[in-house]
């Protein structure tokens, strides 16, 4: 155990634990990560982890809140500050998501949920509620707003949102699953820009037929 860590203020310990847990979950998955390993990586005792998290599941949920769900707060802030057409904010949001996929462990956390939620359904249900469900509601409201303002043709907002974020899901899986085994690198930001362009063209109101 590293003495320097022991001298850290108690208020810093939850973040140290989350950082260590995130690294280990990405390396070993949920099933393969032990709290003993997290404690060693964080430079703390296992007992110290239990002061902040009841068990490994609670720790993983904390990691999801910190590393993934917090990004939705950033998107909500972007939307709250945006005053222009809905079409102008969609490319920015998709490119933000692409940056999170390429530059942070966000996609790796998603991969863990996909691969292990059958064995550990509680982590899948949490991710569904706190990340996917929250994100879908946010985007569905955005599409509905575009329709109401006459920017978009009348489409099903729920299905449109699933189409909209499908490319980002592919980008995340490609980045975390296929690139590590030799697939060519995918420029997820370029994919986001391309997909936004396609979707916005598809959402344009249909021209009225000549009378």
Instruction: Tell me the structural class.
Output: mainly alpha
**Terminal CA distance:** 80 Å
Give helix % range: over 70%
Which sequence of SSEs, written as H and E, runs from N to C? HHHHHHHHHH
Q: How many separate structural domains?
A: 2
**Number of helices in the DSSP assignment:** 10
Ranges where pLDDT stays below 50 over 5 or more residues in a row are 1-6
Labels describing this entry:
211 residues, mainly alpha, Tetracycline Repressor, domain 2, 10 helices, 0% strand, disordered N terminus
List the helices and strands and how they pair.
Blueprint: H1 3-6, H2 13-32, H3 35-42, H4 46-50, H5 56-81, H6 86-103, H7 106-116, H8 121-148, H9 157-178, H10 188-203
Helix pairs in contact: 2-3, 2-5, 2-7, 5-6, 5-8, 6-9, 6-10, 7-8, 7-9, 8-9, 9-10
